[in-house]
Amino acid sequence: MDRVIDEMAKAKGDVERELRQYIPEIIRECMAFAYLGKSFTFDVSDLSDRVNSRLIALSDAILDDIESRAKTAIKYAEEEDDEDAILLYIRRQIGEEDLVQRLDKHCSTLRYFLEGWVAIGMVNNIKEYELTNQILSHIDNPFASPLWQEALNAGYLSDAIRGGLYQYGKGNQKNVLKALTEIEQYAINEAYQYGCILHYGKLGAIGYRTYRQSSYPCEACDELTRHIWPLDVIVLPEHPRCVCGSRPVFADEI
Known about the structure:
This protein is mainly alpha-helical. The protein is built from ten helices and three strands; from the N terminus they run αααααααααβαββ. 57% of the residues lie in helices and 5% in strands. 36% of the residues are buried.
């Protein structure tokens, strides 16, 4: 499990790398319309479609990162033979969304704020790399940026600036970096945990137990350790930051 945790720890770097590639690409797509200044929105010419295309590419790139690290986690679980099934498992629908839809949702949140950031960059003649740094520095809360505060009530047409707030739904959050990182970390962990369960079955186990690997208080994870779980029930990871492990249980141990 420690090696899997190391893979999970690299997720933030993966997501930030992809953001640093695709955000400047989107900014460049917009610069032909810099003359619009405060009136800039993505709804000009075919710009909206081009921006969406880059955001889809961003989502796909993060999905590739997820699957690459998931394959490493599958090796740690010693289940390379079931790699395809495990990758399908982490893509499955949870609630109303599958993995791709969850990634796309947060990329749409990025789109919402990017429109405002690009307009601010145009008005203030901010260079592409400087604007990218501003965006990432305030990705947890754009409204904390002095530039964003200056833009409020200053006549911008972007909904993100003009509205002064962001109404986000269930399962969504403004911090796109954090949200995408958590999705990647969870999927890596899911791949490992499912791989372990499949491996236990091949060893002849009748079930498995979970154990804590963190001293952080968690009643949900504590409760899981009190049971022997059948191999057709997958309980780990219990939550996005779960680092619990498992071990097989054999018939002669009951």
